[in-house]
């Protein structure tokens, strides 16, 4: 009986959480973790694996080296952009920050914010890397 309740709870939580965390990595991570957990530990493993997979799936992969090199080589903008929040990988910068697309890889853009070069996802404005 406990196993059925736990399995139903995991399914309900998954159904509620999936729309709330619409990032592809999170959903893929949760699904992969749930499947692996179910194979190893049954319904309890599925619930635990789904949560761990969702957490791991939200990790931000660093951009390829040519993107980082391109951003490093670009001149600093004439006007400084300063925002109140800290720059954190995995967190979005304000939508008001103007992004410049990376010429050879439009899946990335960059900006100079708080005197830091940041590479971001142009669709979500999520910081992918702070270039040192």
Task: Briefly summarize what is shown.
The protein has helices at 2-20, 24-57, 65-73; strands at 100-101, 109-113, 116-120, 127-131.
Structure commentary:
There is one protein chain. Helix 1 crosses helix 2. The chain has three helices and four strands, in the order αααββββ. A hairpin with a 6-residue loop joins strand 3 and strand 4. It has helices at residues 2-20, 24-57, 65-73, and strands at 100-101, 109-113, 116-120, 127-131. The protein is α+β, with helices and mostly antiparallel strands and 132 residues long.
Number of helices: 3
Shape assignment? elongated
Helix fraction by DSSP (H/I, runs of at least 4)? 40-55%
Spatial separation of the terminal alpha carbons: 55 Å
Q: What count of domains describes the coordinates?
A: 2
H and E string:
HHHEEEE
Question: Approximately what portion of the residues adopt beta-strand conformation?
Answer: 5-15%
Write down the Rg.
19 Å
Secondary-structure blueprint of this entry?
Blueprint: H1 2-20, H2 24-57, H3 65-73, E1 100-101, E2 109-113, E3 116-120, E4 127-131
Antiparallel strand pairs: 1-2, 2-3, 3-4
Helix pairs in contact: 1-2
Keywords:
alpha+beta, 2 domains, four-stranded antiparallel β-sheet, 3 helices
């Amino acid at each position: 009986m406990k196993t059925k309740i736990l399995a139903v709870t995991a399914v309900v939580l998954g159904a509620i959480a999936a729309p709330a965390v619409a990032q592809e990595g999170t959903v893929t991570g949760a699904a992969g973790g749930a499947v692996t957990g179910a194979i190893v530990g049954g319904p309890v493993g599925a619930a635990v694996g789904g949560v761990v997979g969702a957490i791991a799936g939200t990790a931000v992969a660093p951009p390829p080296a040519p993107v980082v090199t391109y951003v490093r080589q670009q001149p600093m903008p004439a006007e400084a952009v300063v925002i109140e929040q800290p720059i954190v990988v995995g967190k979005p910068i304000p939508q008001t920050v103007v992004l410049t697309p990376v010429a050879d890889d439009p899946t990335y853009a960059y900006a100079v914010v708080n005197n830091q070069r940041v590479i971001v996802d142009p669709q979500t404005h999520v910081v992918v890397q702070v270039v040192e």
